[in-house]
Write a structure and sequence with these properties.
- The protein is built from seven helices and twelve strands.
- The protein has a domain of about 170 residues: Metallo-dependent phosphatases (Purple Acid Phosphatase, chain A, domain 2), CATH 3.60.21.10.
- It is about 35% helix and about 20% strand.
- Helix 1 runs parallel beside helix 3.
- Bound molecules: manganese (II) ion (MN).
- The site of manganese (II) ion has 9 residues, from loops.
Length: about 260
């Protein structure tokens, strides 16, 4: 099989959602082999299932493929996301070669330690910072106005002006300036923990780049894209576009990719 990798990382399959490209996922799993298979969250979309969307045989086929790999000895690691958060209750459990946990540290063939996590926790953090920034901006405004009012009163009684807002502004700016984006939050945490990279999903934006030698790898998704992060036998990471790969390998059906509705990340 030409598509043999040391590790495969996929996320955001959103099985159960109408927009899930389950057929392509099944095809991808069927045509690839690996020692490690990481399911990086939002594999099953419990939200849409709750709203009456249908689970079909196409979705079952993907689960069957994954369990088949597990039975064949592939080490499967599953880190649930926000759409399959019910499974977070299983964090810390093992079923045969399948392990479920909040995050994993994957060691690559060349000894790099990579954090594997869906990423929704970091998203919450970054949205909180955004909200915090907005609240801070308002508080600062109030303080400035209060400071001005104090000085007006002090001027009236010919007293020295006071300035308590500048110092506060500096402190608040430090908090507000904190990096707020998802990617930066993940990279910051990865660097703080002394790890060599992070593999995540969640935002449906396939990506692979290095910041000062630290890898940011986003698996993308199987709704708007058909992408995965793969680790080659020498430890090298690659962002794989399954559609391109099929064309390269001459797998039939490569040209048929219909646009589908987009669920939330
Ligand atoms: Mn998600």
């Amino acid at each position: 099989m030409p598509n043999r990798y040391r590790s495969i990382f996929v996320s955001d399959l959103h099985l159960g959602a109408t927009g899930s490209r389950a057929e392509q996922v099944a095809e991808f799993l069927q045509n690839t082999e690996s020692e490690y298979l990481y399911l990086v969250g939002d594999v099953i979309d419990q939200w849409v299932l709750r709203h009456g969307e249908r689970w079909t045989h196409r979705h079952t086929e993907v689960i069957r493929q994954i369990l088949g790999k597990e039975q064949a000895g592939v080490k499967v690691f599953y880190t649930p996301g926000n759409h399959d958060e019910a499974l977070k209750q299983m964090n810390g459990t093992s079923l045969g070669h399948l392990r479920v946990d909040r995050e994993f540290i994957h060691e690559t063939a060349d000894g790099k330690r990579i954090l594997v996590t869906h990423g929704d926790e970091f998203d919450r953090l970054s949205t909180q910072y955004k909200r915090l920034a907005w609240v801070m901006a308002n508080i600062y405004d109030e303080i400035t106005r209060f400071n001005q009012r104090c000085n007006e009163l002090l001027a009236r009684i010919s007293r020295r002006q006071v300035d308590f807002s500048t110092g506060l502004k500096k402190k608040l700016k430090k908090v507000v300036k904190r990096k707020t984006s998802f990617e930066n939050a993940l990279l910051e945490s990865t660097i703080e923990r002394g790890l060599d990279g992070v593999v995540c999903g969640h935002i449906h934006t396939p990506s692979l780049y290095y910041l000062e030698g630290v890898a940011y790898a986003n698996c993308g998704d199987w709704v708007e894209h058909a992408t995965a992060i793969v680790e080659h036998w020498d430890g090298r990471l690659e962002l794989l576009d399954w559609h391109d790969q099929m064309i390269r390998l001459g797998i039939p059906g490569a040209a048929v990719v219909e646009p589908l509705p987009k669920p939330q990340s």
